[in-house]
């Protein structure tokens, strides 16, 4: 029989800031076992919800300098008295170019910093599952006293959308590319960004980075709705030398202060919670649907009919709902 999970002991350990207990609690929220899921929810209900933390999403293509940036930023922040958590959302099973997010070896100084806690992405799974575990881990980290939570993603699939929905400020890392810095920025991602940092603004690339920052400032003006309370900021920096890093963090702080002053921060977090509930409903409905033997048996023929034009998508959907008894 499975060992009983001592939720009160986990609550006490997490609130007391025990790294070992925190790691165990995270493993619990990452688990898919029904008894673990239940204990995890109990644990989360027992923990206080804190609002003083900073939740920052960081995205960028492999090689742009995410880990160098997080290492540099994280050590600056712990040096200034913050406690920093680094989490990752990486649902891809084939991790490209050796870019394992949240890999401790990529952040050597932060990995041994006692005021930092690095947690790699839960092992590959559906984006919904990975995002759920990460959201719940944020709550654990904050309860354990981490006041800055950095959530890293490479933006595979829709992962940057999922991360943007769990943070206060979304930071896009990019770099100057020969000629056109807008090339290579995934469509739609600029709309999510509150702050853009053009990294590798050092040595021979410094001028290019400044030009790219100007170009991006113009592009962002076009995608920012009129009357928005925040105009996204674009800054050039070098994660390697540290130049411009203070300014990037100041922009993150400024964005957060703007949200806080207008009351938008509390609203945003509350909206995120509600959105999250509906995301979970959708995910669970889809899981049930795919687990239903009748639906599974009917899907190939239904898809075939829709593909061939013999059935409208709406009627096909209706048949699936009927099979589920909905
Ligand atoms: P990630 O895949 O986005 O995490 O990128 P990494 O942090 O691993 O960086 C990829 C490469 O770019 C490494 O060789 C870094 O040393 C280099 N790099 C990162 N930041 C900078 C920077 O500010 N300037 C320069 N010149 N190189 C950088």
From TrEMBL:
It comes from Pseudonocardia xinjiangensis. One of its GO terms (molecular function) is hydrolase activity. Pfam families: MeaB. This is Methylmalonyl Co-A mutase-associated GTPase MeaB. Its EC number is 3.6.5.-. Belongs to the SIMIBI class G3E GTPase family. ArgK/MeaB subfamily. Keywords: Hydrolase. Transmembrane segments: none annotated.
């Amino acid at each position: 029989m499975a060992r009983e999970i001592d939720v009160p002991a986990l609550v006490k350990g997490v609130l007391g800031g025990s790294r070992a207990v925190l790691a165990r609690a995270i493993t619990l929220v990452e688990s898919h076992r029904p008894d673990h899921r239940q204990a995890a929810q109990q644990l989360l209900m027992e923990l206080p919800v804190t609002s003083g933390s900073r939740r920052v999403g960081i995205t960028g293509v492999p090689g742009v300098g995410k880990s160098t940036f997080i290492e540099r930023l994280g050590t600056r922040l712990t040096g200034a008295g913050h406690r920093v958590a680094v989490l990752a959302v990486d649902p891809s099973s084939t991790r490209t170019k050796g870019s394992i997010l949240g890999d401790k070896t990529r952040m050597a100084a932060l990995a041994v910093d006692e005021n930092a806690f690095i947690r790699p992405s839960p092992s590959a799974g559906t984006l919904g599952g990975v995002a759920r575990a990460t959201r719940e881990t944020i709550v654990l980290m904050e309860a354990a006293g981490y006041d800055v939570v950095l959530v890293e993603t490479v933006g595979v699939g829709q992962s940057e959308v999922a991360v943007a929905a769990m943070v206060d400020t979304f930071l896009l890392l990019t770099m100057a590319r020969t000629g056109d810095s807008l090339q290579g920025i995934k469509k739609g991602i600029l709309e999510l960004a509150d702050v853009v940092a053009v990294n590798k603004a050092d040595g021979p690339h410094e001028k290019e980075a400044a030009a790219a920052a100007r170009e991006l400032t113009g592009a962002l003006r076009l995608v920012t709705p009129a009357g928005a309370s925040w105009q996204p900021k674009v800054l050039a920096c070098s994660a390697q030398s540290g130049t411009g890093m203070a300014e990037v963090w100041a922009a993150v702080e400024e964005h957060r202060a703007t949200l806080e002053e207008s009351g938008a921060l509390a609203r945003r977090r509350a909206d995120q919670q509600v959105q999250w509930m509906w995301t979970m409903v959708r995910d669970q409905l889809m899981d049930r649907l795919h687990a239903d033997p009748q639906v599974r048996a009917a899907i190939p023929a239904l898809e075939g009919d829709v593909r061939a034009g013999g059935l409208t998508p709406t009627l096909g959907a209706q048949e699936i709902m009927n099979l589920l008894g909905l």
